[in-house]
């Protein structure tokens, strides 16, 4: 499952115990959107209890993530330091957009 939902009062902690319990045991949960969408304790429980196969996370509720964060201890959880958009193409588009916006202001 891939999450791309925005974080609102309706989506905060939308991935919780109930959500993970409904997933197949072969599911790999990926969040590249907003850390607050995931109840991290629920995700840790789902990983520990093998309710899901694994997780890939580029975002966390609190960033930067603490070095002793429990999710960093799970072998079935891959974590990145919020660098999912770090590609040449994305950075080029960001520069172009910034330049465009400066020109519009001037």
What does this structure look like?
With 106 residues, this protein is an alpha/beta fold. 31% of the residues lie in helices and 12% in strands. It is built from three helices and four strands. It has a four-stranded parallel β-sheet, with no helix packed on it. Helix 2 links the parallel strand 2 and strand 3. The radius of gyration is 16 Å and the shape is elongated. The relative contact order is 0.15. The model has no long low-confidence stretch (mean pLDDT 92).
Structural class: alpha/beta
**Residue-averaged pLDDT:** 92
Q: Count the beta strands.
A: 4
CATH topology: Rossmann fold
How many domain units?
1
* Shape by Cα distribution: elongated
Radius of gyration of CA atoms, rounded to a whole number: 16 Å
Residue fraction in strands: 5-15%
> Stretches where pLDDT falls below 50 for ≥5 residues?
none
The N- to C-terminal Cα distance equals: 44 Å
Order of SSEs: EHEHEEH
CATH architect. name? 3-Layer(aba) Sandwich
Index terms:
alpha/beta, Rossmann fold, four-stranded parallel β-sheet, 3 helices, 4 strands, elongated
In short:
This protein has a single domain, classed as 3-Layer(aba) Sandwich (Rossmann fold), CATH 3.40.50.
Topology overview:
Blueprint: E1 2-3, H1 17-22, E2 28-31, H2 40-48, E3 54-57, E4 77-79, H3 88-105
Parallel strand pairs: 1-2, 2-3, 3-4
């Amino acid at each position: 499952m891939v999450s791309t939902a925005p974080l609102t009062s309706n989506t905060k902690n939308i991935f919780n115990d109930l959500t993970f319990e409904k997933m197949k045991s072969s599911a790999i949960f990926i969040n590249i959107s907003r850390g607050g969408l995931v109840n991290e304790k629920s995700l840790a429980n789902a990983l520990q209890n093998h309710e899901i196969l694994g997780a890939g996370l580029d975002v966390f509720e609190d960033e930067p993530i603490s070095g002793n964060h429990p999710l960093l201890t799970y072998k079935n959880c891959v974590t990145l330091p919020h660098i999912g958009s770090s590609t040449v193409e994305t950075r080029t588009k960001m520069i172009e957009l910034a330049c465009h916006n400066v020109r519009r202001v001037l």
